[in-house]
Amino acid sequence: MELGSPEHKHLLMQGIIKVALKTISMGFILGVILMIPFLFRENAFSTGIAYLGLAILLGSLVYALVLVWKKYQRIIKPFDETYRSK
Predict the structure, then answer these.
(1) Extents of the domains making up the chain
(2) Which of 3, 38, 70, 85 supports an S-S bond with 50, CB 3.0-4.6 Å?
(3) Of 79, 76, 83, 78, nearest to 13 (Cα)?
(4) DSSP character for 41?
(5) For residue 44, is pLDDT > 70?
């Protein structure tokens, strides 16, 4: 595999997507775990914990999207500019 080849670019994109999916899945798991007490007993504490779980779930989604966008801007855009000019 050569630097600048389509295969190289594809592997870089796979790595970026893999990091994003791991981030989203960790937030999803933690968020769902925090929402479970709300299913068994509805009181102020479990409601607060459920809202915290929802915030963590949405926060990890937003964080992963920002992370992917910044990595794309930092890695893939210069990659295209560097290897297409040759």
Answers:
(1) 6-81
(2) 38
(3) 76
(4) -
(5) yes
